[in-house]
Amino acid sequence: MILIMLGAPGTGKGTVAGILSKKLGIPQVSTGDIFRKNISEKTELGKLAESYISKGALVPDDVTVKLVEDRLNQEDAQAGVILDGFPRTTAQAEALDKILENINKKVDMTINLTTPEEEIIERIVNRRICPKCKSVYNLVLNPTKKEGICDKCGAELTARADDNEETIKSRLETYFEQTSPLVNYYEEKGKLFSATVSKTINKMGVDVANDVLKKLEGE
Ligand code: AMP
């Protein structure tokens, strides 16, 4: 099963993908996480990715597509994956269609998350991540029991380098210019499931994940 998480930064793609990954028993493939791992390990890919990520721009399509293609060929991806943060451009979506066609697979559902823009900024500036187990917290919406310490593994939390107000603005612009056309791309293919994640309608990641599971069961 191939699921895609679509949505602006800070809408909760990673959270929903994590829940779905556990429930469905298939890996969450986050291109952002792969880039961050390479940055922390100071690999060539990490150095290249950092030069784009720090500006809020996208890593070039050829590099990103190759990364995902290799990941899809790995043993643990054979039953399916949840793509979190890929595709992000029409060229990436078209390349993914070709890759999947070659391995006799197809996109089963694209989950499009939306959140009011003012909430997005608030969510991103308050986001904290665990560098060890990758758990994601929010200082306001989802705080840890002990300040600054991961509930799950006890490591010290950090903020993502690109979660500052200046970079967030470029990331949002990049999203609206280059990624949002994918909403139509998948809608036209009849593959889109949209959900709003917002404080005001009290829809949390776990509710969205349950809605997705119900929809998948009904198909
Ligand atoms: P994320 O963790 O998904 O917010 O991704 C963090 C950053 O990694 C993005 O702002 C991009 O610079 C880069 N990135 C992640 N996924 C992609 C992708 N599919 N294409 C290009 N750049 C990406």
Task: Write up this protein.
The chain is α/β, with parallel strands linked by helices and 219 residues long. Helices cover 47% and strands 15% of the residues. The chain has one domain: 3-Layer(aba) Sandwich (Rossmann fold), CATH 3.40.50.300. It contains 9 helices and 7 strands, in the order βαβαααβαβαββααβα. A 5-stranded parallel sheet has the order 2-3-1-4-7, with helices on both faces. A two-stranded antiparallel sheet has the order 5-6. The model has no long low-confidence stretch (mean pLDDT 94). Residues 9, 31-32, 35, 52-53, 58-59, 64, 85-88, 92, 162, 171 line the site of adenosine monophosphate.
Descriptors:
about 220 residues; alpha/beta; Rossmann fold; 5-stranded parallel sheet; two-stranded antiparallel sheet; 9 helices; 7 strands; about 45% helix; binds adenosine monophosphate
Cα(first) to Cα(last) distance is 13 Å
What is the element string, with H for helices and E for strands?
Answer: EHEHHHEHEHEEHHEH
- CATH topology call: Rossmann fold
CATH class: Alpha Beta
- Average pLDDT reading: 94
Shape: globular
What share of residues is helical?
A: 40-55%
Contiguous low-pLDDT stretches (5 residues minimum) are none
- Can you tell me the CATH superfamily? P-loop containing nucleotide triphosphate hydrolases
β-strand number: 7
Quaternary form: single chain
Strand order of the largest sheet: 2-3-1-4-7
Question: Which SSEs are present, and which pair or pack?
Answer:
Blueprint: E1 2-7, H1 13-24, E2 28-30, H2 31-40, H3 44-53, H4 61-72, E3 81-84, H5 90-102, E4 107-114, H6 117-125, E5 127-129, E6 136-138, H7 165-179, H8 181-188, E7 192-196, H9 205-218
Parallel strand pairs: 1-3, 1-4, 2-3, 4-7
Antiparallel strand pairs: 5-6
Helix pairs in contact: 1-9, 2-3, 4-5
This protein binds adenosine monophosphate.
